[in-house]
Every structure is written in C-alpha cells, then in structure tokens.
Amino acid sequence: MKRTNRLLIISAALVSLALGACNKDLNLQPPSNTVVGNGGQGTAGSYIKDAATSEAALASCYAFFRSNAAEYYVLDYFNIGDAQSDNAYAGADNAAGFEVDEFRILSTNSWVARDWSYLYNQITACNSVIVNVPKVTDAALTATRKAQIVAEAQFIRARAYFDLVRLFGDVPLVLEELPTITADNLAEIYPLLYPARASKDSVYNQITNDLKSAVEAVPVSAVNKGFVTKGAVYTLLAKIAATRKPINWPEVQSYTDQVIALGYSLLPVYDQLWDGAHENSAEAIFELNFDGWETGGNWGTSMFLGTDWKKFCNPSNDLMRAYKEANDSIRYRSTITFANVTGKWGDARLSLDSFPFFYKMRKTDASQNIIMYRLADVLLLKAEALNEQGNVSGANDIVTQIRQRVKLNPLNITDQAAMRLAIERERRLELAFEGQRWYDLVRTDRAIPVMQAVTDGKGVNLGYHLTEQSLLWPIPQGEMDQNANLEQNTGY
C-alpha cells in the first residue's frame, strides 16, 4: 500500500471519529508489531501494576523461547545457522527453505517473514517490561528484583536485536510502547507506528547499552541455565564485539575473560552435552529448558531426526568430510547419526542407505534442552582474540584444550594465518548444529569464498553464487507493503 493511499484511509478514519466515534480506539498496528511510543496509558503493558504482573510480564518474554516464537528457536535458528552454511542442506520439501539454502531468497519468502515477526514480537514483550516495571510501586517488588526483571528483559531484547541486525542489517529500532491511538493523536503516532530502519551502528549501540546496563543487575547464577545471568550477558557482549566492524579484539578478550572467571568448566565427555542426562551443566551458559508438551515442548527434535518423513537441515557431505579429514570421530558420532531410508524418500546429494541426521537434539519426548551459549564457544572466541592480537601461542593452547576433550592431538601452530583457519575449523567441528556456522562465516568475511568452494560428495562444486548483497536477507515484502518508510535491501 502506498503512503498516500494509507493517509487517505487514516483521514477517512479521522472523519468517522469526528462524526461520533471519538471515544473508540483505532487499531492500526502492523502485524510485525514494529511500533514505538511514549509508554502512555492503554499500552500493551498497562496491565503491569504490581509484583505479580511484573513477574508474569517477564515470564512472557521467556515464553517466546518455548512457545510464542518456538518455530524460530527450535527450527529456524538451525536452518539459518547451519542449513544456510556449508554444514547442511535445507532438506524436507519446503520451497522457502530451498531459497535460503541456495541463496535465492525472495522478499516474499515465508521464513523471512515469520522470523522477522517472531523476533519483533519478542521485542514487543520485552518493551512492555522495560517501560512499565520501573513504574510499579508495589512494596512486594523490591528495588533489587525490579532492576533484575528489567535487566533480564534487556538481555532478551538485545539477543533478538542481535539476530535481526545480523540477518537484515539496518532495522527499525523499537524501544517503547505505542499509546492508545485516537483521533487526537493519530497524526503524531503515524511516524511511530511506521518507523524507518535505524542504522546498524545505532542498533549495535542500543543492544550494547542494554547489555552493559543488564549485567549490573542480573545474578551470577539462577535456578537453571534458562534464565539470564552475568555469564550470558558477557557472552553476548563478546559475540557482539566479535561481529561489529571494526572488530575490537581486546574487547572480545575482555568479555570472554569475564565469562571464564565465573567458573564454568568443560564437561569431561563431549557427548554428555547432548545425552539428556547432563542438562544445565557446568559448561552451559544459556540453555533453553524444556520439560514436555504441557509447558511448550521442544518439537524441534522431530524436525531433524527420524525416518517417518524427510527432515530439515540434513548434514552436508562437506561437513561429514571435514570430520573424517580431522579424524574427529568423537564429535562426529555425537553430531551426526545415520539410518537406511531407502524407499522412504529420494535425495540427489545424500546416500539413502546411510542417510545422515543431526543428532545433538535426540530426545523425542519434547524435553530436549537447547544450548544456546556454552563455554567451548567462549573459549574459541578468546582464541580468536588472542590470535588476532598476535598471541598465536595462547590461541594454540586454547584450541589444544578443546581438542583434548575429544582425544585429538595438539596442533602446535605458530603462524597467525594458519591459526586463524584452524580456529575456524575447530569452531565448525565443535559447534555444528548449534546455529553458529553461518554467522561465523559472515563475521569473519569468509562466507563468500567458503560457500563458493563447497562441493558435493563426489567433489563437484555445488555452484553457490554469493555476493555481498546476499549476505543479508530482504526486508519482508509484507512489511514493505504496510510501511512506506521502510527501504528494501539492495538486490531484492
């Protein structure tokens, strides 16, 4: 819809209000919930009045990890981070997934639209907490707990924005709530209802400020790793520092050191991370907790594992070859499993008599936790920071520590460029099917050369054609149609 046409509709609404409906509110909120405002009366968070409703509002922010945006966190998170990379093929039979996998994304792609919406809806829930909880005067809500509730919401909002800015680049920066829309304030509300995209720098500044504020109020530990702690905040700060250009490597090292100082430790056996018997372990920093279907179960396992129908995110020949070339049998067995699917479906790239499935999610009763941040990831980020600052030996020591757990020999690399590639490879083998690989390739400027060199099981190049433009997703067409202030990413 063109801006002029929408203004005509709004004008007509104003006339209607003037003719006798002045006391009724207008609902002009776009589906993406990309709205801002001054936190006035009648907002979505107006129900937050006391300690109980403050806690309930924060719970709604966490609920997006398990139910309200579960499709993003238990499915698309891995399709983006692994199937979009050289770790996996899209699998299944979804055309939108094939577009993502093969870098043929259209602005009408349904996955693009839903992920934009899921993340902004979570941000909207967080905004309600951040805007309204500080106003609560209920004596049952202590100042310490009030600050902690706000801080946890700030982390969740920052985490969602980090995904948005990495996927789309410049995005609308929605930080508050929209007041009830009436005839009197509609003209004022219009630019807030339809915001333009903010620069990546503005978004990064905001999420960094949110996290620096949050880390002061969140606890060192919680009842389980599904709640925000200082370790989670410092981990996200480290990831942001390792992504935002120009990269500040001393800052990356500082944040990773602050995580390490909190006492996390690697599990002695790699498979314990995924066997379901060691959840919320000493290695986990932030982990989505699932108990079963009644509390928003993790249905993602059945999207990736099983022979009843062809699954999403099938491990690639390139990834399997990488494990074999590294003689990395321990992580290989924990990450990938095989089954004979002959007669069940076809596949042009993978063997049907030994078809690969990702195996880090393997419990089928909806109770499989998802580890989003863990110590091995942080240690390898620190190794990057050390290497980029010229401390190749220190980086080699960390990589050796990670490799020792899976019975691999030290690398003893002394060349910085060689160590850079070694860390890249180690992160891939350690973190496969954890939603990390694509973002790693992009932030290190390796996505284009790596993806254009990917071959199939016979060594034939797969013909991925990437440009700088294809490293970002398009703004969803539905958002463009509703908001004339949005500009599309180049190339779409």
Write the layout of secondary structure elements.
Elements: H1 3-21, H2 51-68, H3 70-83, E1 88-91, H4 95-101, H5 110-132, H6 143-168, H7 186-193, H8 200-214, H9 230-241, H10 249-260, E2 284-288, H11 301-304, E3 312-315, H12 317-325, H13 329-335, E4 336-339, E5 355-358, E6 370-374, H14 375-388, H15 392-405, H16 416-431, H17 437-443, H18 447-452, H19 477-482
Helix pairs in contact: 2-3, 2-5, 2-6, 5-6, 6-8, 8-9, 9-10, 10-14, 14-15, 14-16, 15-16
CATH class of the domain at 28-218: Mainly Alpha
Strand order of the largest sheet: 1-3
What is the mean predicted local confidence, pLDDT? 91
Q: What does the radius of gyration come to?
A: 23 Å
Fold-level CATH name of the domain at 28-218? Serine Threonine Protein Phosphatase 5, Tetratricopeptide repeat
Percent in strands = 5-15%
Briefly note the structural class of the backbone: mainly alpha
The N- and C-terminal alpha carbons lie at a distance of: 18 Å
Give the beta-strand count: 6
What is the helix tally?
19
Poorly predicted sequence stretches spanning 5 or more consecutive residues = 1-27, 29-40
CATH architecture of the domain at 28-218: Alpha Horseshoe
Along the chain, the helix and strand elements come as: HHHEHHHHHHHEHEHHEEEHHHHHH
Binned, the helix content reads: 40-55%
The biggest beta sheet, please? Answer: 2 strands, antiparallel
Assembly state of the chains shown: single chain
Given the C-alpha coordinates, what overall shape results? globular
